[in-house]
């Protein structure tokens, strides 16, 4: 019995590497045998010492295993060259060495200022595998920021670090509870974090922390080695490509010289924008658009779609700011400028990538295009002056030498004996500055010339002589198109058609009176002809600057109460008056036209009498009322 209950038995248990629970056996047997208390205390002390020895041996065995694994890891890493292989090997070895459920690694993103999940081993959650951790958030963010290891036995309940909903959701979906994170450091710089984690709550021993720190140190060196190797390979590839680049550059310089000579010759022989576009595409291969400052097409070579207006504006602005061509997707843009003035753009879709010398070719083409456009503008302005002088002579009084005028017009492609309408544009289109006035005149000259007509500035107006017979349509078209150019409502009065050069002066003055009448009627920003305004237009065309105010006062004094009554109550007194006068004062015919009963017409007219006075149907009052109704109708926008 004494043999079975002696301290020697603990040595035997240590020798056969018994489980810790078996060390209770000798004590249980001793108590059962009734040994005295001093013997039991001796055995208890022997058991305690034996368990400490067993724990020490266990730690040393585990340390030997860890060191062996660490040695194997270093050997494995030394043989790896691809960075992804290195990272996967590190994480897999970390999981095996610590016997963890999951191991993973985050690396710092210097551009975004956070860390992101790079590699996982044992993970099952896609959400967890896509996590990004702000610096200082979560256990890993804290490790990355501080550069020191952190361990938690229960992540969800640990308040030592900042929790975020996204990180907690990812950790919860993965089911992680205990997490150990150690920094990956290169010198004083932290490049990421290596983790070991379990799905149950348990502390990590100091030996495990030290092991993961050692592995992280080797891993950081291996990562840096793989990075340096990748950079070396990249440098060799760049050196290999340098020779190819030099050869390509030499070829591009030759192309640039040829393009320069070709475009110089093109300018000297009087070529146009279309010739520049063709030369660029032949040298650079591809398709090209030449656009003016308004985005209108000047030339197209090859198959290329026009970009959106907003894209053109943005790209041209960038090209002007940078002083060179810019790329937007597959297209290259080069602003066509003269000083601070934007003249348009060249848009190139090359078949191959452009090198710097090729960009210079495109930019030189934009410069040549600007020069050609300035030449074209100078010629156009000279022609515009000639056309303007001719129109000014045609509408002047008295008219001299009509045969000479016809001859001058024929040289400009204008037949003075064909029907023409004259359109006068109001002062609302011409700002106070001379540049704005010149812009309107330039637009009018181009607009009229494109239609075989003439344009000039006269007496503070801009006048257009346009082929055709429909004066009203021409006035509305000019008002609409010029409003778009100026960005403000434009009023245009028109008259015609004319019947030969002798009638043009009178037609102009009628158009001018029509313009004045539109202002008097409160129809600024519209276009109309004298025929559309009738006798009222001719009458109001002579009232001058006070016209609109006088018309408003006349309407208020004559039919103002009726207009106010209709506006307040939604009645139809004005419509009834117009119908009544329109059928010569017949109640029955007015009722038929209005689709109401005669009594209704009678009641409405009685109400008019109450509003205007009993004498409203007397001849002189009736004439004033009818004139006021006509003015009121003309003041409304044209339908």
UniProtKB/TrEMBL annotation:
Source organism per UniProt: Micromonospora coriariae
Pfam family, one: HTH_30
Family classification: Belongs to the CdaR family.
Domain GAF: residue ranges: 82-233
Protein's UniProt name: Transcriptional regulator, CdaR family
Lineage: superkingdom: Bacteria
Gene3D superfamilies: 3.30.450.40, PucR C-terminal helix-turn-helix domain
């Amino acid at each position: 019995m004494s043999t079975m209950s002696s301290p020697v038995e603990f040595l035997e248990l240590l020798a056969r590497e018994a489980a810790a629970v078996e060390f209770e056996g000798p004590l249980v047997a001793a108590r059962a045998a009734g040994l005295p208390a001093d013997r039991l205390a001796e055995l208890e002390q022997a058991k305690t010492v034996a368990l400490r020895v067993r724990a020490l041996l266990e730690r040393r065995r585990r340390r030997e295993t860890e060191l062996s694994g660490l040695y194997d890891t270093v050997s494995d890493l030394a043989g790896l060259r691809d960075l992804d292989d290195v990272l996967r090997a590190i994480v897999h070895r970390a999981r095996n060495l610590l016997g963890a459920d999951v191991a993973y690694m985050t690396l710092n993103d210097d551009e975004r200022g956070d860390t992101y999940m790079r590699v996982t081993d044992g993970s099952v959650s896609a959400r967890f595998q896509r996590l990004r951790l702000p610096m200082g958030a979560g256990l890993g963010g804290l490790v990355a920021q501080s550069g020191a290891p952190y361990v938690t036995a229960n992540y969800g309940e640990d308040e030592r670090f900042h929790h975020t909903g996204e990180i907690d959701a990812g950790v919860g979906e993965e089911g992680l509870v205990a997490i150990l994170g150690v920094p990956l450091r290169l010198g004083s710089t932290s490049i990421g974090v290596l983790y070991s984690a379990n799905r149950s709550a348990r502390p990590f021993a100091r030996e495990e922390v030290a092991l993961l720190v050692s592995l992280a140190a080797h891993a950081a060196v291996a990562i840096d080695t793989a990075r340096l190797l990748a950079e070396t390979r990249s440098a060799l590839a760049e050196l290999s490509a340098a020779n190819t680049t030099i050869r390509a550059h030499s070829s591009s310089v030759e192309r640039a010289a040829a393009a320069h000579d070709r475009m110089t010759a093109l300018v000297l022989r009087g070529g146009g924008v279309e010739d520049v576009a063709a030369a660029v595409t032949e040298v650079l291969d591809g398709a090209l658009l030449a656009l003016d400052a308004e985005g209108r097409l000047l030339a197209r070579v090859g198959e290329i779609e026009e970009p959106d207006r907003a894209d053109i504006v943005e790209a041209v602005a960038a090209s002007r700011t940078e002083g060179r061509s810019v790329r937007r997707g597959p297209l290259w843009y080069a602003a066509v400028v003269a000083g601070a003035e934007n003249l348009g753009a060249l848009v190139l879709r090359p078949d191959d990538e452009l090198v710097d010398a090729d960009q210079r070719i495109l930019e030189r083409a934009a410069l040549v295009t600007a020069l050609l456009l300035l030449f074209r503008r100078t010629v156009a302005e000279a022609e515009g002056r000639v056309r303007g002088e001719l129109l000014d002579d045609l509408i002047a009084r008295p008219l001299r030498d009509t045969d000479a005028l016809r001859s001058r017009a024929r040289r400009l492609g204008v037949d003075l004996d064909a029907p023409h309408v004259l359109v006068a544009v109001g002062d609302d289109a011409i700002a106070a500055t001379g540049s704005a006035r010149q812009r309107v005149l330039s637009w009018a000259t181009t607009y009229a010339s494109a239609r075989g007509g003439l344009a000039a500035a006269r007496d503070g107006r801009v006048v257009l002589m346009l082929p055709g017979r429909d004066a009203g349509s021409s006035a509305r078209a000019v008002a609409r198109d010029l409003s778009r150019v100026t960005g403000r409502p434009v009023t245009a009065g028109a008259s015609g058609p004319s019947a030969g050069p002798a009638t043009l002066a009178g037609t102009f003055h009628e158009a001018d009176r029509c313009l004045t009448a539109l202002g008097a009627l409160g129809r600024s920003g519209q276009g109309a002809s004298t025929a559309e305004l009738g006798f009222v237009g001719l009458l109001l065309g002579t009232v001058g600057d006070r016209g609109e105010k006088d018309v408003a006062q006349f309407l208020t004094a004559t039919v103002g109460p009726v207009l106010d009554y209709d506006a307040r109550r939604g009645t139809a007194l004005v419509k009834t008056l117009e119908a009544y006068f329109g059928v010569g004062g017949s109640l029955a015919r007015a009722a038929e036209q209005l689709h109401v009963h005669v009594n209704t017409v009678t009641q409405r007219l009685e109400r008019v009498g109450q509003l205007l006075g009993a004498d409203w149907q007397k001849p002189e009052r009736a004439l004033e009322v009818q004139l006021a109704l006509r003015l009121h109708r003309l003041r409304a926008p044209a339908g």
